[in-house]
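Mods, move this if it's the wrong board.
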Amino acid sequence: MSITLAAVEQCRDTLANAFAAYDVQLACLFVGHLRRLRQRFNQFDEFRADVDTRELCVHFLHIALESVLDICRHFLAVVGISLAEFDTANMIDLAGEKGLFDRPFAKRIRGMAGMRNAIVHVYWRLDYPEIYRVITEQLVDFDEFARQTRQRLSPDA
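Not the wrong board. Structure tokens:
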């Protein structure tokens, strides 16, 4: 039995799409958790004072952001971009340039990578006002990301 390069590439693409579809569902799940937690506070002072809710929001936001970046990684691998050609900070812009979603949207959400990096690497000094702003004003960006990603994965749907 001979395996062709085309068969290997098709398998890779199918797996990458499956992983991306899973990550879209994961992001949507955790954004839903954030929306539910959002009902626990009406202003920043309440958010800051409720440590359990605040830190749960940070955790759920981190998972949603990781899902976005994982989708970008899968997509960039499928279109032939090596991991050596990008870092987390420019991954969203590059995915927009390569057609995962439109470029203006990529520019609008490019800060997601920085937010993820801050949560992961500067966890002892988080910008809670910015996290509050994301949770109260920008969850719709995750919805748009999911919509555009699903459209890219299933253009005929």
